[in-house]
Structures are given as C-alpha cells and as structure tokens.
## 1
Amino acid sequence: MIYLSKTVNIDWGKLGFTYTKTDFRYKSIWKDGSWDNGILTEDNTLTISEGSTALHYGQQCFEGLKAYRTKDGKIQLFRPDQNSKRMNKSCRRLLMPEVPEEKFIDACIQVVKANEAYVPPYGTGATLYLRPYLIGIGDNLGVKPAPEYLFGVFCSPVGPYFKGGLAPVNFMISDYDRAAPFGTGAAKVGGNYAGSLMPHEIAVKKGFADCIYLDPLTHTKIEEVGAANFFGITKDNKFITPISESILPSITKYSLLAVAKEYLGLEVEEREVFIDNIDEFKEAGACGTAAVISPIGGIEYKGKLHVFHSQTEVGPITKKLYDTLCGIQFGEVEPPKGWIVEAK
Ligand code: PLP
Ligand code: COI
C-alpha cells in the first residue's frame, strides 16, 4: 500500500495521554488454529459477537510501546521484542493463542509507517503510543476460552501521562489491591485495570496523581505506582526496585536497571521495599512506557506525607536516569544491542 504524505494539525507540545484517531490500524484474526495475514484498515471500530469472552470474562490482554522520532527524522521503536514476549506470557495465562514475535513487530511497524504524519517531531517531547491488544471473540456462552481471537494494533500521538512531566507529583498508598497473590498481576490483562479505576479515582479526588498498591498478601511492601513500577534511590546511591510475583514486569523498569548499572555505574537491586522503611530512599520515581519516569514528590501513608528529594525539583539521579533513557529512545545515546528497531 502507498500512503500519501500529509501533514496533521496537532499542537504537539499540548498533547496529554489521550486518544487521537489516526488514519490506519492493524487487525488480524485467529481461527481454526492459525492467524490470517492481517490487514491495515481505516475503520477504528470492531464488530464482534455479543458472546465474545473479552466482553464477559475478561479474556483479553494488551501492550503499550512507543515510536520515537530522532533528530535526523528516523522513526524508531524501543524494545518491541520485549512487549511481544510479555504479551505472549499474558496469552499463556489466559489460554489465548500467542502472536509470533515477527508478526507482532511487523504489525507495529506497519501501523507506524501508515501513520507517519502522526509521529511527533523530534524535540516536542511527544511520541507515538502503540497499543497492541488481543481479545477473545466469536459466539460463546460458558466460561471457557473463545473460539476465535482478534489481534489489533492502533496508535495515538501522546504527551506526558502524569501531568507534571518531570515535575514531581504526589501519590497515596491505597487500601485496595490491583491483583491477588497468585492472580494475574504479572499479566497485562484488562481485569487488573478495571479493578484499579476506583482506587485511582479516590486518589485523584484527594489531590494525588494516582495511588500506590502494596503487596496483596501482607500490605507491607510497595508493588506498583498506578500503571507504573516503583524505583527508589537509597541514601548510598543504590537503584532499588520491588520484586514480587504480582507486579507487572515493566520493560522500562528492566531497562532502567540496566541503565543505572551500565551507564551510571550505580549498584542496583530488585528486592522487597517495605513501606515502613520508605525513608531509606532520598529519591523515588514511577516508571513505565506511558509514565516514562515521573519523579515522586511524596507518598501519603497513614495520614502522613513522606517527602523525598523535593516537592518541586527532580532529584539529580532521577534526572540522569531520565536523560539517559530518553537519550537512548530518541537516538542520542548509543543503545545496548537490540534495544532499538527502526521503522523503515
Ligand atoms: N505497571 C503497570 C500496572 C502497567 O500498566 C505498566 C504499563 O505498561 C507498567 C507497570 C510499566 O510497564 P512498561 O514499562 O513495560 O510500560
Ligand atoms: C503503558 O505504560 O504502556 C501502560 O499500559 C500504562 C497505562 C496507560 C495502562
């Protein structure tokens, strides 16, 4: 297919994390044991059976990754192989057919190229967010895996997920859980997010950016910062991030573990982070594809706000992590082998 070059009228600097309808999206169907070739279509709606398992039993999963415009005008994806692997892990957890890695990455590249006009210019801070998803479809009634599946990828240009960008924001500890101890917390499935809507709303109404979830078994350890992972920098400059079976394994978090160690020379540790020991950290942050790195100004727990580096300024190590990660993503810093895939 040949796409006519066009320009779009978007104020890139003003974008938040919202849906903008772009021109093309990818759809592919799994039926009778195999995937079809997939198509790009202008239709941003789905017509599916009312009995689809995705609608009733939450048999669906999704991913999130971004395309970045470099200074010389190229477009590149950040670690799409990791999103493919994680989506296939979610598929195995919910008994859905896996999408071959090559098909997943090819679909992402097709969508980026077909919507090139929507890839924000270098220097605006905005990016093109890609949302791959896989849903159980087809006529069905009982609680069982669907007879057919739809794999789709759409995209939308986006700005910052948390309003502050690199300005610190506050979070509160939630009394609610987003996942069960041996449930689906480590899979990127819609049910985890449905359960997070109310705790999120409670936090926002109280003036916080989002809530922090503790471990569902003991409620003593930090797990997730809304839809992002947590990291902290100890007073002796170690990069620490929580470990748990119910945390979503964030690709950004694993990338930061490598960046902290290999680029900044910090000691790194993935280990339990007890909320009662929160003053071991001089800086803290939320990290994720949408969130990038959002410095945590303070955390409210049991009625008290614990403040880290500052309520107004990003801490120096968090800033270095941010600059190095974004440098790699936007093509200014040499990436580790295999992290960048050009969309060409
Ligand atoms: N935790 C949750 C619950 C998320 O939804 C996300 C977003 O994908 C993350 C963490 C961050 O993961 P990643 O860095 O792979 O985007
Ligand atoms: C992401 O960071 O890609 C997410 O999926 C977070 C949220 C928008 C669900």
## 2
Amino acid sequence: MTTPIPTTQTAQILIIGAGPAGYTAAIYAARANRQPVVLQGMQPGGQLTITSDVENFPGFAEPVQGPWLMEQMSAQAAHVGTKLEADTASRVDFNQYPFVIETDSGVTWHAHVVIICTGAQARWLNVAGEQEFRGYGVSACATCDGFFFRGKDVAVVGGGNSALEEALFLTNFAKTVTLVHRRDSFRGEKVLHQRVMNHPKIRVRWNSVVDEVLGTIQGSLRSVTGLRLKDTVTGALSDMPADGVFVAIGHDPATALFHGQVQTDKEGYILTKPDSTATNIPGVFAAGDVKDRVFRQAVTAAGMGCMAALEAEHFLAMRESDSSAAV
Ligand code: NAP
C-alpha cells in the first residue's frame, strides 16, 4: 500500500529558489539544525546551469562548468540535511503566520521563515520577429543552443559581460560572431573586452539596435535569416545576414509571485533593510539576484544566502526565547 502524499506540510525554513543563494542559505540553515526545505522550481541551479566556464567562483584554480558547480552545491545542501523538493511555488500568503506557500504539485506549506531566492530571468528585446523565431534561431542561452550553429554566422546582442562571454563561447561553433551593441563602448569587463576585440571570428557593430529579426516560415519550418539594424547615430536601417541571434541584454528579477506580498522597487527587485536580507515582512528574507541589481554574481548571491540563513536563525531563536519566556 502506498502512503498518500500529505497536502499540507510544515517547515521551519522554506527556501524558494535553487541558485547559489538558495543552496547556500540551505547549507547554513541545515547546519543550524533547522531542516530547511528548498522548492527548486523549474530551473534547479538557476542561471549558472546555462553558463559554461566559471572562472571567478573562489576555490577552483581551473575554470569549472556552471552546471557542475550547481550540482555540487545541491549535493552539499542535501548532504547536510536539506530537503530538496522538485516543486514550484505558485502562490504565497505572507499575511498569515506561519506563512502559507502553495505549490504546483498541490502541496500547501506552512513556514516559520521564508527565504526568497528566485533569482532573475533573461530580458528580451521585444522587437518584431523575436517571439516568432524563439527556439528557431533566436535564443537567450549560447551554452544551451550554440552547438546548433556549427559553421554558421551568428549575432549576439548586448554589451555587458554576458554578451561578451556568449560571443566568445560561440566562436567554438560559429563561423563568424557579430556583436551588436547600442553604444560605442562595452559595459563588460576589460579582460573580456580585449579577448573579444582580439578574436579573429568576432566583429562588432557599434551604435546599433535591433529593429527586427528577419526569417522565413515555410509550413512548420522556421529559420532566422538576419537582423534589421538601426544605427543609433544616423537612424539608418540596414539588413545583416545571420543564421542565429543570441539576446544577452540582462535580466529581470523573478518576483511576480511576490507582488503585493513584500515591498519591491519599481523594477520588481525585492527591497531589503540596509546590510541585511530582511524584507518589510518579519520572517521573510530575500537573497541573491532577486534583490541585487548591482553585483549579480554567483559569489555575492551565495554570500547573501549565508546572510539570510543567519538572519533567519536569529529570527527563529528570538521567537522561541520570547515564547518560552511567556510560559
Ligand atoms: P548587463 O551588465 O546589465 O548588460 C546588459 C547589456 O545589454 C548592456 O550592454 C546594455 O547596454 C544592453 N542592453 C540592455 N537593454 C538593451 C536593449 N533593449 N537593446 C539593446 N541592448 C540592451 O547584463 P549582463 O551582461 O547580463 O550581466 C549582468 C550582471 O552579471 C553584471 O553585473 C555582470 O557583470 C554579471 N556577469 C558576470 C559574468 C562574469 O563575471 N564572468 C558573466 C556574466 C554576467 P548599455 O551598456 O548601453 O546599457
């Protein structure tokens, strides 16, 4: 006889999201003997699962692969006692205590602390053709889709670290890579800038924005043929041939679930107290890219996950001492 899965469960610390912030929060909370639960969501491991070489996470002399690094964090969290749930939060209610969190699989969690670590999602250009050709030549993940462009001409849109890294990564497959950037200088780090400028397969279209993604549709077959670019200085339009387009223009915080529940800024980033991960709701903390528009690094997200777990432990300990003093 199989035991039915209970539809209501409790957690001392419930962590929503499984990137570096979520796993680090889990490791610290588990080591504080709080039996944390992580709702891993649709993309366990977060943005690093779609990153190739990671060279700047301390502790590794040689570059490591993003997916491998996240597997290690997940395994470490499980090893110290975290319950990892392959489930996605679908509704939260922070007006009740314990907090109520419902999931896609129909479980209702009652949690004494919630740590929000839902990260950020790729931003799109919102130009004609982009949506139509997504998955048919338009992508936001070179690591995932670069392989399909062996020997082809591709474009990368953006001028930050992500765009520069994606362009360099794509040179492993593509015949040529054209970086399309709306200004005349990159936002990304100098070291990447130099690698890009010195790479024989990469060229740059400065002062250019995408006006339209061009392509053909024949029955169920769709393929990208190029980009219509607009010169930001002269306003002139020109067509550039390309077999694939990688959009790397930044991210938006994944906070739709929390609207009306915690304070956010006008772009949706969760607001926290200075030098803290505490939100405006006592017992709800936020860590990583979901609250950080400035640094957005795996290592800073991990650091904030640690802070959130320590603050969560302090919050629970204070409540416990208050309630035992009241007896
Ligand atoms: P980002 O730094 O915000 O850069 C976004 C780029 O896209 C900018 O160059 C921006 O142009 C351009 N852009 C934005 N909206 C656009 C639009 N609608 N049309 C055309 N271009 C547009 O984002 P990111 O590169 O994803 O990086 C995010 C954070 O992660 C950064 O802090 C970055 O340092 C970090 N990161 C680090 C690494 C690493 O250290 N290895 C790797 C990847 C990312 P403007 O420059 O004109 O604003």
